[in-house]
UniProtKB/TrEMBL annotation, chain A:
GO terms for cellular component: cytosol; early endosome membrane; glutamatergic synapse; lysosome; postsynaptic early endosome; retromer complex; tubular endosome. Residues 76-281 form the Sorting nexin/Vps5-like C-terminal domain. It comes from the Eukaryota. Pfam families: Vps5. Gene3D superfamilies: Arfaptin homology (AH) domain/BAR domain (1.20.1270.60), Phox-like domain (3.30.1520.10). One of its GO terms (molecular function) is dynactin binding. SUPFAM superfamilies: BAR/IMD domain-like. GO terms for biological process: cellular response to amyloid-beta; intracellular protein transport; negative regulation of DNA-templated transcription; negative regulation of neuron apoptotic process; negative regulation of transforming growth factor beta receptor signaling pathway; regulation of postsynaptic membrane neurotransmitter receptor levels; retrograde transport, endosome to Golgi. This is Sorting nexin 6.
UniProtKB/TrEMBL annotation, chain B:
Residues 1-73, 90-126 are annotated as: Disordered. CDD domains: PX_SNX2 (cd07282). It is a peripheral membrane protein. This is Sorting nexin-2. It is found in: Cell projection, Lamellipodium; Early endosome membrane. Residues 162-291 form the PX domain. Residues 458-496 form a coiled coil. GO terms for biological process: early endosome to Golgi transport; intracellular protein transport; lamellipodium morphogenesis. Involved in several stages of intracellular trafficking. Interacts with membranes containing phosphatidylinositol 3-phosphate (PtdIns(3P)) or phosphatidylinositol 3,5-bisphosphate (PtdIns(3,5)P2). Acts in part as component of the retromer membrane-deforming SNX-BAR subcomplex. The SNX-BAR retromer mediates retrograde transport of cargo proteins from endosomes to the trans-Golgi network (TGN) and is involved in endosome-to-plasma membrane transport for cargo protein recycling. It comes from Aquila chrysaetos chrysaetos. Residues 27-50 have a biased composition (Low complexity). PROSITE patterns: PX. GO terms for molecular function: epidermal growth factor receptor binding; insulin receptor binding; leptin receptor binding; phosphatidylinositol binding; protein heterodimerization activity; protein homodimerization activity; transferrin receptor binding. The lineage of its organism: Eukaryota, Metazoa, Chordata, Craniata, Vertebrata. Belongs to the sorting nexin family.
């Protein structure tokens, strides 16, 4: 298909399109980073971390090295071991009701967030496709308008303009949904995974503690290496109690943060959807007024 | 005498042939055979002298369909009654005294075989033209009369408030298995006096519509009228329906077809000339319609159609016309551009329909997922909010489905209709080219005959000479007539096309404006609903504590 003059004239909007997309992605990334840093800063222990301080204050290039192949491989194996172990460990029933409830809750919640996150992604992409179609329709109408010899050409041009503007709004709807909904769900997908990991570590430590208890009993029975067994048992006990305490707090915080984040995002989502729908409506109505006035 | 000169192909005594003949291409062979078999075929040549003299160039009265039912009908129409009177007064010996709008089947395209007769006319549709040439001396005033009569008819129609409303409804499956078909109810509401009643309805099947279009196209396209195309056949779609799949895709298909048939009829009756056509009237009124078997794709006629289409395409490429009228060249280019642009737009709108349906499905999936998430959320307020979100999204999904429906039926289908209409317009331009070609060919042949005559003058065989000279003189006269007729036909078709194109453009502007405004209004509705839904949700989201 040969590119006609009308299509060339429409090129500036293509450049605008690319700009808009870039801005949308940029906005997203910035938001994610902000959330991350705020969380670290709010954490009682992490906020004191030296790395964090350096990150915030060092006014020159940090020269962060990415993980090399060896480290990536190590991570991979660690994950494998962890998930295998996790299966074993999760079989252990917990005495503590709180943690038992949390575990059941988290497993289900995690799966459902995963599903919701995936569906939300698909939804956002579909919205974007519709916006792209509006763009193509707008340029086709523009071409029709510039080539037509009858008095309908003004009509076509006006409608083409409408589609261009409405497309921008639709694209923003898609971007906002992405930001407020998809990203939220993605974030909590990872958060719930992190919470699950925490529970795993606690269960691991519980298993270690119970094993240490058994070893101590055995040592006492045999009257051999009792002191060593006692020390090990005590360390395990301390570890377990410490992790239980901080885990409890973390999980309670997790719930609070989750509720707050959902609230914030859902409210903002609704407000943005309203804003865009009203914007669209106004565009459509003013265009209709002009078209009806003409005919 | 009237009875003897039975118009060969159209008599009701031959129902089988009748159907055959309504196929444009079949006309050709059948007309030949029936003319040959008819004892009265040489008759036109032996018409009373008075007629010949006034008739040599003018349009011959059409081979008219003897339809006794129609006699009364025509008596109702004032103009037609006038014509009937006029024709009767002339004491015509032909049975073709009934003025109908039937175009002569011996149309110019079929001329080569029928050449023994004086060239029959491209009889334009309206009755008055049958009379006109006889009233005036053989001049090219016929077209003028034609115009006047067209306008008269239009005025007549306007006087009747041009009021006719057609609905296609109640698709109903008839029969079983592969012989099953859908019957549609066609309801007409009108105050036009040409119809027997003011409100009536009939049952028609898809092939009936195709048959109607075929008849109209045969009669009017080659003289320059833009006949609205019928909806397309769909073997896949129909097979599903026949097989009895009661799923949403087959109901969608039936609905799409019903809407298309309705638009087709509405467009056809809007055309003032086509509205006068008896076939159209029969289609709308008669409870029984002879089955248009030859519209089937795989019938003998169907194959002949395809062959002829191919032949036409080849011919089009080889005709190099000297366009003396810039208007036609300009218009053809415009329609070419319009065609391209509409196709692009149509493709974009169809993509929109597709994506919106996808969006709707994805929203529905998300809604379910959000509901599940809400269920597993143990914070009560958040859980409730998530359930509300799921409900909102479900409603929005419905909304998008409805919008997709509007995208399609309002916008996409209109574009599809116009793409097919433009193909019909291009067809009419092609017919004009063929007409021109015919005229040119006649001129060439005339030239050859004249050269032959000149040669004969110089030849030296006195015994054979006189006879040959007489023969050639006759032939030259004949071809002179043909050349004049060809020129006339060409001017006629050019004039008709100009008018038709003007009308088409007006209709197009009106149609597009109406449809686009309707479409935008559907978008407005969607946005208004969206606002309602999100406004209802916002307090729920804020209530999370």
């Amino acid at each position: 298909m040969t590119t006609t003059l009308t299509e060339i004239k429409h090129l500036p909007t293509l450049a605008l399109l690319v700009c808009c997309e870039y801005l949308a992605i940029f906005k997203k990334t910035v938001a994610m980073h902000e959330v991350f840093l705020c969380r670290v800063a709010a954490h009682p222990i992490l906020r004191k971390d030296l790395n964090f301080h350096v990150f915030l204050e060092y006014n020159q290039d940090l020269s962060v090295r990415g993980k090399n192949k060896k480290e990536k491989l190590e991570d991979f194996f660690k994950n494998m071991v962890k998930s295998a172990d996790g299966v074993i460990v999760s079989g252990v029933k917990d005495v503590d009701d709180f943690f038992e409830h949390e575990r059941t809750f988290l497993v289900e919640y995690h799966n459902r967030v995963k599903d919701a996150s995936a569906k939300s992604d698909k939804m956002t992409r579909s919205h974007k496709n519709v916006a792209d179609d509006y763009n193509r329709i707008g340029s086709s109408l523009y071409a029709l308008g510039t080539q037509d010899s009858t008095d309908i050409c003004k009509f076509f041009l006006k409608v083409s303009e409408l589609f261009d503007k409405t497309r921008k709004i639709e694209a923003r709807v898609s971007a906002d949904e992405d930001l407020k909904l998809s990203d939220l769900l993605k974030y909590y997908l990872r958060e719930s995974q992190a919470a699950k990991d925490l529970l795993y570590r606690r269960s691991r430590s519980l298993v270690d503690y119970e094993n240490a208890n058994k070893a101590l009993d055995k040592a006492r029975a045999k009257n051999k290496d009792v002191l060593q067994a006692e020390t090990t048992q005590q360390i395990c006990c301390q570890k377990f109690e410490k992790i239980s305490e901080s885990a409890k707090q973390e999980l309670i915080d997790f719930k609070t943060r989750r509720v707050a984040a959902f609230r914030k995002n859902l409210v903002e989502l609704a407000e943005l959807e309203l804003k865009h729908a009203k914007g669209n409506l106004q565009l459509l109505q003013s265009c209709l007024a002009v078209l009806n006035g003409d005919t | 005498m009237a009875a003897e000169r039975e118009p060969p192909p159209l008599g009701e005594a031959r129902p089988a042939d009748f159907e055959e003949l309504e196929e444009g291409e079949d006309l050709f062979t059948s007309t030949v055979s029936t003319l040959e078999s008819s004892p009265s075929s040489p008759e036109p040549a032996s018409l009373p002298a008075e007629d010949l003299s006034t008739n040599s160039n003018g349009p011959k009265p059409a081979e008219i369909m003897l339809d006794d039912d129609r006699e009364d009908l025509f008596a109702e129409e004032p103009i037609l009654a006038q014509l009937v009177g006029m024709l009767n007064r002339r004491g015509r010996e032909q049975s073709s005294t009934e003025a109908t709008e039937e175009v002569s089947l011996d149309s110019p395209e079929r001329d080569p075989i029928l050449s023994p007769e004086p060239t029959p006319a491209i009889t334009p549709v309206t009755p008055t033209t049958l009379v006109a040439p006889r009233m005036e001396s053989k001049s090219v005033t016929a077209p003028v009369i034609f115009d006047r009569s067209r306008e008269e008819i239009e005025e007549e129609a306007n006087g009747d408030l041009f009021d006719i409303e057609i609905n296609v409804s109640d698709p109903e499956k008839v029969g079983d298995g592969m012989n099953a078909y859908m019957a549609y109810r066609v309801t007409t509401k009108t105050s036009l006096s040409m119809f027997h009643k003011n409100e009536f309805s009939v049952k028609r099947r898809f092939s009936d519509f195709l048959g109607l279009h075929s008849k109209l196209a045969t009669k009017y396209m080659h003289i320059g009228y833009i006949v609205p195309p019928a909806p397309e056949k769909s073997i896949v779609g129909m097979t599903k329906v026949k097989v009895g799949k009661e799923d949403s895709s087959s109901t969608e298909f039936v609905e799409k077809r019903r809407a298309a048939l309705e638009r087709y009829l509405q467009r056809t009756v809007k055309h003032p000339t086509l509205l006068q056509d008896p076939d159209l009237r029969q289609f709308l009124e008669s409870s029984e319609l002879p089955r248009a078997v030859n519209t089937q794709a795989l019938s003998g006629a169907g194959i002949l159609r395809m062959v002829n289409k191919a032949a036409d395409a080849v011919n089009k490429m080889t005709i190099k016309m000297n366009e003396s009228d810039a208007w036609f060249e300009e218009k053809q280019q415009q329609f070419e551009n319009l065609d391209q642009q509409l196709r692009k737009l149509h493709a974009s709108v169809e993509a929109l329909v597709c994506h919106r349906k996808e969006l709707s499905a994805n929203i529905a999936a998300f809604a379910k997922s959000a509901a599940m998430l809400g269920n597993s959320e143990d914070h009560t307020a958040l859980s409730r909010a998530l359930s509300q979100l799921a409900e909102v999204e479900e409603k929005i999904d419905q909304l998008h489905q409805e919008q997709a429906f509007a995208d399609f039926y309002v916008f996409a289908e209109l574009l599809g209709d116009y793409i097919r209409l433009i193909a019909a317009v291009k067809g009419v331009f092609d017919h004009r080219m063929k007409c021109w070609q015919k005229w040119q060919d006649a001129q060439v042949t005339l030239q050859k005959k004249r050269e032959a005559e000149a040669k004969l003058q110089l030849a030296n065989k006195p015994d054979k000479l006189q006879q040959a000279k007489d023969e050639i003189k006759e032939e030259i006269e004949e071809w002179e007539t043909k050349v004049q007729q060809g020129e006339k036909d060409f001017e006629q078709i050019s004039k008709t096309i100009r008018k038709e194109v003007g009308r088409f453009e007006k209709e197009r502007v009106k149609d597009f404006k109406t449809v686009i405004i309707e479409y935008l209004e559907s978008l407005v509705q969607t946005q208004q609903q969206l606002i309602k839904y999100w406004e209802a949700f916002l307090p729920e989201a804020k209530a999370i504590a």
